[in-house]
Amino acid sequence: MRASRLFALLSFAGVALTAPAQQPATSISPAAAPHSTATAIRQNDPCKQGSIAPRRDPYSPGFVPAAEIADGQVPPAERDGNFVIGPTHRPAPETLPQDGVPHGTLSEFKMESADSKLYPGIVREPCTFGTPDPADPAKMVVTTSHPGPYTREVGVYIPKQYVTGTAAPFMVGADGIDHTMPIILDNLIAAHKLPPLIFISISNGGGDAQGSERGLEYDTMSGRYAEWVQSEVLPLIESKYNVKLTTDPEGRATIGSSSGASCALAMAWYHPEWYHRVLSYSGTFVNQQWPTDPAVPHGAWEFHEHLIPSSPAKPIRIWMETGDRDLLNPNTLRDNMHDWVVANENMARVLAAKGYHYQFVFARNAGHSDRAVRMQTEPEALEYLWLGYPISK
């Protein structure tokens, strides 16, 4: 019964700015993006066979016009638009514990796949890969994925300022318990730069990319993950920790890195009645969905290819980042839809064209989901993300 259930699921502050560089505003593909031979990095995943990410120039033809920020600084939190930072990335002061700041609590618990109605669990055999479909080079065939259990950890940060019985704003984060975010939140909440919000960090179900539980959860273009959080995670947190989570979408945010970022956007895109704020590092807005959905055959590449350009603007505010050495074709598909830099550049373009409130940061001297960049930018990103939400003094 469990296997049949699975495959039923599978079927469906002071800142120096310079004038923006003027570049064409047309959409670009990876083939058109210039690749410098000056620097290249190799990913540290032993299952990725020699994938190399070349350094990209933020002022390449076809990339979005952007304002250069003085080295070591970040964009102003109140400004929309495109920005270039780096090459130096120093941790923001808010990422370090500060004296005299009230400290919230971080609690942890586990969730088992056997208890989930929406995600009973799949596993792809280690270091096995899919192959391109001979009939469709944009489609991956995976034959080594099968039902399998998982245990995931969930972290819940509750600020010291939370008043029991009140409806708290909150954020949902992907890919595991974040031990830095509580420090940042303690500092920003105490400085009255953020509301007293609850942060929920959820581990994925294991693996990566096509055929894995993580891939199924994060790369699927649907509202299923948001529905799982809504029905199976949030009620559990409210009952376990005696908190009340707001139902106002203006008080709900999603954040993530890589595929966790594309998942964060999907949560808001498919359920804007639940989430209005999205924070993305190195968003995997590429063709990585599995199984393929004929309605969105190019996976998260569809966000900038079709979905955002052809849909009325949704009430979503988004902060996003990519690095100059972000990923490029780390798998066997060569479909011109696996360049993370190009995907994020195209996202910035279509968001601007539709009038979204967004901030896009291109980080020099930065790889995929770069920790140094995150430590530099996350406090500013959170301020931007929550701009307009009431903050009590």
Quick take:
By secondary structure, the protein is α/β, with parallel strands linked by helices. It has eight helices and 18 strands.
Plain-language structure description:
This protein has 393 residues and is of the alpha/beta class. The protein has helices at residues 2-11, 181-190, 213-219, 224-241, 259-270, 302-310, 340-353, 371-385; strands at 36-42, 52-55, 67-68, 81-85, 105-112, 122-124, 131-133, 136-141, 145-147, 151-158, 167-168, 170-174, 198-202, 244-245, 252-257, 277-281, 317-325, 358-367. It has a single domain (2-385), classed as Alpha/Beta hydrolase fold, catalytic domain (Rossmann fold, 3-Layer(aba) Sandwich). Helices cover 24% and strands 24% of the residues. Strand 16 (277-281), helix 6 (302-310) and strand 17 (317-325) form a beta-alpha-beta unit. Helix 3 (213-219) packs across helix 5 (259-270). The longest helix is centred in the middle third of the chain and has 18 residues, at 224-241.
